[in-house]
Amino acid sequence: MSDGYGIAYAVTTAVSMSGGPVVNEKGEIIAIHGHSDSEIHKLAKRQGKAIPQEPQALTEEHSDALGSITSVFKWGIPTKIYLAHLAQVSPGAVSQENNNFLLWAMALTISGTLLGLALAAMKRVFYFWFLLGNVLEKLGKYQDVIASLDNAIKIKPNKHDAWNSRGLALGKLGKDQEAIASYDRAIEIKPDYADPWNNRGVALNGLGKSQEAIASFDKAIKIQSDKHDAWNSRGLALRKLGKDQDAITSYDQAIEIKPDYAEAWNNRGVALNGLGKYQDAIASFDQAIKIQLDYADAWNSRGLALRKLRKDQEAIISYDQAIEIKPDYADPWNNRGVALNGLGKYQDAIASFDQAIKIQLDYAEA
Questions:
Q1: pLDDT tens by residue, 33-67
Q2: What is the reported pTM?
Q3: % of the chain surpassing 70 pLDDT
Q4: Fewest CB atoms within 10 A around its CB: which of 26, 52, 179, 288?
Q5: How far apart are CA 44 and CA 47, in angstroms?
């Protein structure tokens, strides 16, 4: 076809896309977009020229089925032809504005190569790998997160935030001991960085080293006294040591800093439940649910407190809420069965226990 239009494609294009890149299924730039067939028809008519044969033939072939000859195909100039024509244009033959456009268009045509070079260069940049790790973390691809952060650390070994993020990804994979090693490296680089101290405590608590965990939380809090998640995690570690009252003090600190912190309210309720203060526990669970209505754990824990007060029917309502939010949550199914059993509804209780076992085959309590 004349004017270099050698590629046709039946795709939708937005208005003012002329001059934009055309890519193939591999993402490679193969042409510069020019006109739709309808535009070629209108241009030829305006100029009093015959419609070029290729668009005419393709349009006629498809016009019956579509009932129209407008915008069936789009036409582009292959990059090789475009570059060959650009090479023949002398700088003095065009205005500065057009010259800038030609330079931009040339950049587009070779952008496939430039993109490859840019990616190669970016792969030598710390933040390329660090930010890629952040994106992968949002997607839950923790093994890939670690690989990206390892590349980032290879470029800049002393970036404390990369070591901390690496520890978090390892923690998500249940590799707490390895996570601690990453947190330790972050702390070695920046001792006054509260996050890895807190995260180190979470990993230690996961390994059952609650006393060491508390020491790490204390360090995080010493650096940043308003770190609500460290106060909350400290409470969890204290509770593992059977220190419910001390745990409540930590949860209260977390709540004072962040009153809408549903997790701390829930954990406070659990500790109060452990102390036999069931009414107070229910008040805490209610606060957690008020903040986060779909908090399945809080609904389940609320049911447990109600059952301690011999309010089995009300407890079942709480368990039902937990199950509605999270149907594959074995605990409320089991607890529901216990409450039904207490009401003498043995057949219904068995059905609930069966459901708990179906979700979790090794559920010994059910």
A1: 666 666 656 656 666 666 555 544 444 444 444 44
A2: 0.67
A3: 66
A4: 26
A5: 5
